[in-house]
Amino acid sequence: MADQKWSNRDFGALPSVLVAAHELKSPLALVRQLSLLLEDDQLQADKRLELQRQVSQVSTGALKLVEDLALTANLSPSLFPLEPVNPLAVCRQVADEISPMAKLYGHQVTWPRRKRSNELVVANGVLLNRILTNFIANALKYSQAGLPIDIIVKQTKGLVRIGVRDRGPMMARREYRKLIDEMATMKTVRTRPDSSGLGIYVASQFAQAMDGQIGLIRHRDGLTFYVDMPISRQMSWL
């Protein structure tokens, strides 16, 4: 298991029209495929409704990614003020929002149990929500069918770590070293060999705006993407 921190400098060369086009290619292709299926006059009503819902879910996810990328151009404190945020409350919010997409991909997402008390973090709830959503969207793409995606919230070294553990294909050490080299040389960072890493770039920008930092842990059967956030000095929620 290896732990690698990512800084804003590592992502310096990432945002571009080419990267955005690469990331949006798959959802747009899927929307087109679903639209072609909807042209079949012989479709039963329930199947047609299912396809329409899939078109809506996929297009909504792509739209949110574009909106996130636009937000990275103006992350001023006046627009996204920092305040004490309950990370478990953010998890519950994302759980409701991500449920339709998880069903579309056929994955089960496990969430941390609510505790009687937990640490608050200094963050912006909207940005923290989008970081977690982007991590989960990445995990949904690469986790193997039938295996869970785990959301983890824990305290570590004076910070609160919020992580998303996927069960994707094992990343070979050579690929992992290549990924680290790409970060070190400020080239395009890919979460998997066929990924542009746009969602992870967006997450890194949102984290930096909140004095947080994202990172990666390599496992034998997948990856964990996480964000470390500073603990609030105010009283924890009971």
Structure explained in plain terms:
This protein is an alpha+beta fold. The protein has a single domain (2-230), classed as Histidine kinase-like ATPase, C-terminal domain (Heat Shock Protein 90, 2-Layer Sandwich). It is 46% helix and 18% strand. It is built from 6 helices and 8 strands, in the order βααβαββαββααββ. The strands form 2 sheets. Strands 1-7-8-6-5-3 form a 6-stranded mixed beta sheet, covered by helices on one side. The chain has a two-stranded antiparallel sheet with strand order 2-4. Helix 4 runs antiparallel to helix 6 (198-209). The protein is globular and about 60 Å long. The chain starts with a strand and ends in an 8-residue tail after the last strand.
Describe, in short, the structure shown.
By secondary structure, the chain is of the alpha+beta class. The chain contains six helices and eight strands; from the N terminus they run E-H-H-E-H-E-E-H-E-E-H-H-E-E. The strands form two sheets. The protein has a six-stranded mixed β-sheet with strand order 1-7-8-6-5-3, covered by helices on one side.
